[in-house]
Specification:
Elements (H helix, E strand, L loop, with lengths): L2 E6 L7 H14 L6 E6 L2 H9 L5 E5 L16 H5 L5 E4 L2 H6 L4 H13 L3 E6 L7 H12 L11 E5 L13 H18 L9 E5 L4 H10 L4 E4 L6 H11 L1
Parallel strand pairs: 1-2, 1-8, 2-3, 3-4, 4-5, 5-6, 6-7, 7-8
The structure holds 1,3-dihydroxyacetonephosphate.
């Protein structure tokens, strides 16, 4: 399995020019990758312009999608629109969507199902808030989020462990704690599916990832990649993170 480095730009940058410069600079720094898949998830306003250009070195992802196929849903975007725009991935279940937009496990489950049905790959975010029981949160988010999804679809799902207290705070999760979370996630998947089910499942870590800590997570954290927020907005920093995965 290749390492996967995902850039979640969130609601940044504010101009097309800045977005285009960022992509260009990243592309220049990551030529000839062998071991690493790079997925960039810009806001919708810039996403499809970039995805249509079909850059060989990177894949593109959306930060959200609606679960209905088409119709009267003002302001929403369908999974098929993304698929038809050469977008390969979609981030679902992000804690910011859960917190600010009230997304429930049930809604996230519907979004995952409809995304998989058109052939999108899903980056499914899970993780506890400060003070919450990690184990309990992971069990309910994963069990409810993957309800009705078959084992053969797991190859198209990447679970991203993002403890909410580590996002944008500089307080990143320790390596041992990350290993524990990855082991818990795999155990939950094996219980829901079969003993071998977690073998095809990629697990990422996200939360205050920087070039100084990215290599440690990849080497010792038991993860197959990283979901990077703030540090993905600086080309030089993001390139270093990608290189640490090579
Ligand atoms: P930061 O890397 O800025 O902590 O954000 C992590 C994140 O939420 C990625 O989805």
């Amino acid at each position: 399995m290749k390492n996967i480095i995902v850039a979640n730009w969130k609601m940044n940058p504010q101009t097309y020019q800045e977005a285009e410069d960022l992509i260009k600079n990243i592309l220049e720094g990551i030529k000839d990758l062998n071991n690493t898949e790079v997925v960039i998830c810009p806001p919708f306003t810039w996403l499809t312009d970039f995805s249509h250009k079909n850059e060989a070195q990177i894949l593109f992802g959306a930060q959200n999608v609606f679960h209905k196929e088409s119709g009267a849903f003002t302001g929403e975007i369908s999974p098929l629109m993304l698929k038809n725009s050469k977008v390969d991935y979609v981030i679902l279940g992000h804690s910011e969507r859960r917190k600010y937009f009230g997304e429930t496990n049930e809604l996230i489950n519907q979004k995952i199902k409809s995304s998989l049905s058109v052939g999108l790959k899903v980056i499914f975010c899970v993780g506890e808030n400060e003070g919450e029981n990690k184990e309990e949160v992971l069990v309910s988010q994963i069990t409810e989020g993957l309800q009705g999804i078959s084992e053969k679809d797991l190859g198209n799902i990447t679970v991203a462990y993002e403890p909410v207290w580590a996002i944008g705070t500089g307080k990143n999760c320790g390596i041992e704690e990350t290993q524990d979370a990855v082991a818990s996630i795999k155990k939950i998947i094996e219980k829901l599916y079969s003993q071998n089910a977690s073998e095809v499942l990629a697990v990422l870590y996200g939360g205050s990832v920087k070039s100084e800590n990215s290599g440690d997570y990849l080497k010792d954290g038991g993860v197959n990649g990283l979901l990077v927020g703030g540090a993905s907005l600086k080309a030089e920093e993001f390139i270093k993170i990608v290189k640490s995965a090579e």
